[in-house]
TrEMBL record:
<feature type="transmembrane region" description="Helical">
    <location>
        <begin position="79"/>
        <end position="97"/>
    </location>
</feature>
<comment type="similarity">
    <text>Belongs to the SLC29A/ENT transporter (TC 2.A.57) family.</text>
</comment>
<feature type="transmembrane region" description="Helical">
    <location>
        <begin position="349"/>
        <end position="368"/>
    </location>
</feature>
<keyword id="KW-0813">Transport</keyword>
<dbReference type="GO" id="GO:0005337">
    <property type="term" value="F:nucleoside transmembrane transporter activity"/>
</dbReference>
<feature type="transmembrane region" description="Helical">
    <location>
        <begin position="135"/>
        <end position="155"/>
    </location>
</feature>
<keyword id="KW-1133">Transmembrane helix</keyword>
<dbReference type="GO" id="GO:0005886">
    <property type="term" value="C:plasma membrane"/>
</dbReference>
<keyword id="KW-0472">Membrane</keyword>
<feature type="transmembrane region" description="Helical">
    <location>
        <begin position="41"/>
        <end position="59"/>
    </location>
</feature>
<dbReference type="Pfam" id="PF01733">
    <property type="entry name" value="Nucleoside_tran"/>
</dbReference>
<feature type="transmembrane region" description="Helical">
    <location>
        <begin position="317"/>
        <end position="337"/>
    </location>
</feature>
<feature type="transmembrane region" description="Helical">
    <location>
        <begin position="410"/>
        <end position="433"/>
    </location>
</feature>
<dbReference type="InterPro" id="IPR002259">
    <property type="entry name" value="Eqnu_transpt"/>
</dbReference>
<keyword id="KW-0812">Transmembrane</keyword>
<feature type="transmembrane region" description="Helical">
    <location>
        <begin position="167"/>
        <end position="188"/>
    </location>
</feature>
<feature type="transmembrane region" description="Helical">
    <location>
        <begin position="286"/>
        <end position="305"/>
    </location>
</feature>
Length: 439
């Protein structure tokens, strides 16, 4: 098989514009556009990789009722989230600072492997303690949750940086997969609760089933990223293009696809790339947008839903239904930007929409105090809808107009602000319990 490249004019303002046409020819004379070959498979793989990067953590959030039964005095939903985030933000900051020197392949594979190992060890901890509470098991769970944070920083930053110089559809699919993990875990939780709630140790059995399914998906992601994703023609094309622009982070993935030889890396181009500081200054509005999206969301979800919504007709089902509705609308909304006329691309418009979401704070407060469960379900649905939609709009718009190495760096920077927003939101979430009981 012979690979030839025809250079045509390149417009960096959109990944959808024609940058180069790469064709494949074989002995039969059949040719095809490599840039689009394997696109649908790549979109599917990105979705699964997105699911795998959050399915373990979403499982922890969704089975919070089990941990509340084991550790009723330790605020599991809030504490575990607060443990998770410093490790995620700290690790991500270090990785983003050194992103140009880090092998993306090793980074992502390490992250998915750590996710798999930590999730599996949660099962081991529960089996070893026979599902008993106490300080010891709680500390063990906290340690594994901290490992989740480290894994998240490796995977989410690595994948976003990698996908930033590919098609926007890949980024959208990856983040749809993130939300899809929430839908999957919520549906499974509702099913297992309905099927096992009245059986002996039903809550515990459902939890172990959850963690086993999450472990399976993490292992699947390891296989997909290691052996499938790097060999897709469209992925190889964009990575070769990034390498030709000076990117050093794609070398191992190109080698895994058999493209390690013959790639000319223009180091002079890399030396001319914008610094991280310049990228932040040029995209400070996008960075703050992501920070504010997740400050607001995580100051409400999930801790407020489990501890501050009162008692209603749905009983123990109530927080599970709220979490499920958030996850469902968050998932659906991440596909809305695929409809071009519905995608918000104005930088000023995005900022206004994101700041206006802070009206959710008084809305949730007064609804929890005076409203019934129907209003709360509507509010949490709107929270999920705006969270997913605005996240995808920002992340697909920001990388446009840059070269491959700069897009990779910007992707990592955006994830730092995203995780920073989550951390700040988790910390602010504790304010809801002031005057609402002891710590």
């Amino acid at each position: 098989m012979i690979i030839t490249c025809e250079a045509v004019s390149c417009n960096y303002n959109s990944l959808e514009t024609e940058c180069a046409v790469m064709t494949i020819g074989d002995e039969s004379g059949v040719t095809g556009n490599v840039r689009h070959e394997g696109k649908n498979v790549a979109v599917l793989v990105c979705w699964i990789l997105g699911l795998g990067s959050l399915v373990s953590w979403n499982s922890m959030l969704t089975i919070a009722d089990y941990y509340y039964a084991l550790f009723p005095d330790y605020h599991p939903s809030r504490v575990l989230t607060l443990v998770y985030q410093p490790f995620a933000v700290g690790t991500m900051a270090i990785l983003a600072y050194n992103e140009a020197k880090i092998d993306t392949r090793k980074r992502n594979l390490f992250g998915y492997t750590l996710f798999f190992a930590s999730t599996f060890l949660l099962i081991v901890v529960d089996l070893a303690t026979s599902g008993r509470g106490g300080v010891g098991p709680y500390v063990g769970i906290c340690v594994l949750v901290a490992a989740f944070g480290i894994a998240d920083a490796h995977v989410q930053g690595g994948m976003v940086g990698d996908l930033a110089f590919m098609l926007p559809e890949f980024m959208q699919s990856f983040f749809a997969g993130l939300a899809g993990s929430g839908v999957l875990t919520s549906v499974l939780r509702l099913v297992t609760k309905a099927a096992m709630e009245k059986t002996e140790h039903g809550l515990r059995k459902g939890t172990l089933l959850f963690l086993a399914i999450a472990s399976f998906f993490e292992f699947l992601c390891i296989l997909l990223y290691a052996f499938v994703f790097p060999k897709l023609p469209i992925v190889r094309y964009f990575r070769k293009k990034a390498a030709s622009e000076g990117s050093k982070t794609v070398a191992a993935d190109l080698a895994a696809a058999g493209d390690g030889q013959g790639i000319n890396q223009d180091n002079s181009k890399f030396s001319q790339r914008l610094s991280n500081k310049q990228l932040i200054l040029q995209n400070i509005d996008y960075c703050l947008d992501l920070f504010l999206i997740y400050v607001l969301t995580l100051s409400i979800f999930p801790g407020f839903l489990y501890e501050n919504t009162g008692t209603h007709n749905l009983g123990s089902w109530y927080p599970l239904v709220l979490v499920a509705m958030y996850n469902l609308l968050d998932f659906i909304s991440r596909y809305i930007p695929l409809v071009k006329c519905l995608k918000l691309e104005s930088r000023k418009g995005l900022s206004i929409a994101i700041i206006s979401r802070f009206l959710f704070v008084p809305a949730f407060y007064f609804t929890a105090k005076y409203g019934d469960q129907g209003w709360m379900i509507m509010l949490i649905s709107l929270l999920g809808l705006t969270n997913g939609y605005l996240t995808v709009c920002v992340l697909t718009a920001a990388p446009k107009g840059y070269k491959g190495p700069e897009q990779n760096a910007l992707g990592n920077i955006l994830v730092v602000f995203l995780l920073g927003g989550i951390f700040a939101g988790v910390a602010l979430d504790w304010l809801w319990i002031i005057g609402n009981g002891s710590f």
